[in-house]
Amino acid sequence: MAILIVEDNPTNGLILRHLMAKAGSSDIVVCDDPLKALRACETQHFDLLMVDHMLPGMTGLEFVRIVRDLEDFRETPIVMVTADTSAALREEALEAGVNTFLTKPIEALGFTQMMSRLIASQSNPAARSA
Fold it and tell me: CA-CA distance, 61 to 82, in Å (whole number)?
């Protein structure tokens, strides 16, 4: 499963990469710049996107809206990583195309369980329709 992590904080990117590996993924790309991440989406296929809410140059919501306009990413699961727990952000993010959220600080066990479920649902079409 190919995963793109869009996170400008190097420490958070490293932590997310480590947690993704523990959840069973080995094909992980971390981009610290949303424009580089968009270019990667134009040339590579990713099965899952993990996007920080606060990014340099654009917000995670802006990134999600742009990615959702790309044919190959209309159905790709997107996880938004944020410390903001407001209902307004969550509603706006869901409308933009975010599928689920990770709240900072990230709890390792909960993260691993959630990502394992996402990975399993992507590799098992019957689980997606259940």
Answer: 11
Alpha carbon distance 53, 81 (integer Å): 6
- Residue 122 confidence (pLDDT): 66
The model's pLDDT over 104-122, given as tens digits with 9 standing for 90+, comes to 888 888 787 787 777 677 6
Contact between 51 and 64 under an 8 Å Cβ cutoff? The reply is yes
Q: What's the one-letter identity of residue 106?
A: I
Asked if residue 72 lies in contact with residue 30, where contact means CB atoms within 8 angstroms, the answer is: no
Strand partners, 81: 52, 102
- CATH topology for 2-124 is Rossmann fold (3.40.50)
- Where exactly are the structural domains of the chain? 2-124
| Helix pair angle (87-96, 60-68), 10° resolution | 20
Number of residues written out for the chain: 130
